[in-house]
Design brief:
α1 links the parallel β4 and β5. The chain is an alpha+beta fold. It has one domain: 3-Layer(aba) Sandwich (Aminopeptidase), CATH 3.40.630. The protein has a 5-stranded mixed beta sheet. The radius of gyration is 12 Å and the shape is globular. It is built from 2 helices and 5 strands, in the order ββββαβα. The N and C termini lie far apart (29 Å).
Length: 90
């Protein structure tokens, strides 16, 4: 699965079989990102696409020294289950 960071739309996205899934964010300030929506079309459900998007987005934050606000419930749930990303919480 190829995930890209679209700076223009502030989304991490992937397109599979003609369907685009994404995790959108808002920049709060120079050091903080609000991950606010994870959208996976039903045609891509059950394939781990949402999880892959969240991991990619969190790794991006980590590599770029950004803190994360998990407004999206899917991102918040992922963070609760993966303590290795807890240090990213704003």
């Amino acid at each position: 699965m190829h995930i890209t960071h679209n700076l223009t739309t502030q989304r991490f996205e992937t397109t599979i079989d003609g369907h685009t899934a994404y995790l959108s964010y808002e920049t709060i300030d120079d050091t903080t990102l609000d991950y606010n929506h994870t959208i996976v079309p039903s045609e891509l459900g059950g394939r781990g696409v949402g999880t892959a998007l969240v991991k990619f987005a969190l790794d991006y934050a980590k590599e770029n020294n950004k803190a994360v606000v998990p407004s999206c419930s899917f991102v918040a749930s992922f963070l609760q289950k993966h303590p290795e990303y807890q240090s990213l919480l704003a």
